[in-house]
Amino acid sequence: MSEEYFSIAIDGPSGSGKSSLAKNLAVKLGFIYLDTGALYRAVGLYMYNNSIGGEDTESILSCLDDIKIDIAYDNGEQKIFLNGEDVSFKIRKNHISKYASDVSKIPGVRHFLLNLQREKAKSDNIIMDGRDIGTVILPDAALKIFLTASVEERAKRRYEELTQKSKDDGTNIKYEYEQILHEITERDEQDSKREIAPLKIAPDAVILDNSGFSLPEDTFNAALKIIEERIPDVCIR
User: Fold this and answer.
1) In terms of C-beta density within 10 A (0-12 exposed, 13-18 middle, 19 or more buried), how is residue 166 classed?
2) What is the pTM (predicted TM-score) of this model?
3) Which of 40, 48, 190, 204, by CA, is between 20 and 30 Å from 148?
4) Measured between alpha carbons, how far is 21 from 183 in angstroms, rounded to an integer?
5) Residues 103 and 34 sit within 8 Å (Cβ to Cβ)
6) CATH for 36-124, among 3.20.20.70, 3.40.50.300, 3.40.720.10, 3.40.366.10?
7) How far is CA 30 from CA 6, 143, 148, in A?
8) In angstroms, what CA-CA distances link 86 with 10, 66, 71, 75?
9) Each residue of 152-188: pLDDT tens digit?
10) Short-list 22, 29, 27, 6, CA closest to 140
């Protein structure tokens, strides 16, 4: 009898805290956390290394067969290998972000990475976060959580995060709350209306609104309660 694996999909808008939640839940549950954005960064890195522009869709699609991405874990930390090379650090460089964004808009690239993500869910208990995990990547996930908060709340958190970071690193950059609010509102609009993998709530998702939650632990505990209620077979360590 084959072992049953559980998958949890966490979707939500920018600034809702879904990545932090997914990582912390993975540690608590003993699940694998799959950073799906790292996969697009790996494809973007390949294009950068081979001097292929992020807008050159034809060339990008023509070389997908030459790309082999592997995922490994070292003490719970995800490692990304591109054609046998550990590129976990290289994909985090700022100039790769634009490439990752460009290739993620191409349907052929998303399809290329789709099977990789689904196959990982067949061999491990896994948590993924994003904007289309429950609707596209893992439509049969054991549990889907849509994490959200008011746009004002998300802008406030982002403002406080950036302000504190500028103090800590000594740059003392002055950020404007209204500008951040505008940017997040605009991002929400783009994410919900884009043609490829739009941000949507899966019909069977549990909506977790963490507006007004004062601490990240509040969101974590609320999500943990949902997991215990919806998939009690998952052992809470």
Assistant:
1) middle
2) 0.84
3) 40
4) 23
5) no
6) 3.40.50.300
7) 11, 16, 24
8) 27, 16, 10, 16
9) 999 999 899 889 988 888 888 888 999 999 999 998 8
10) 6
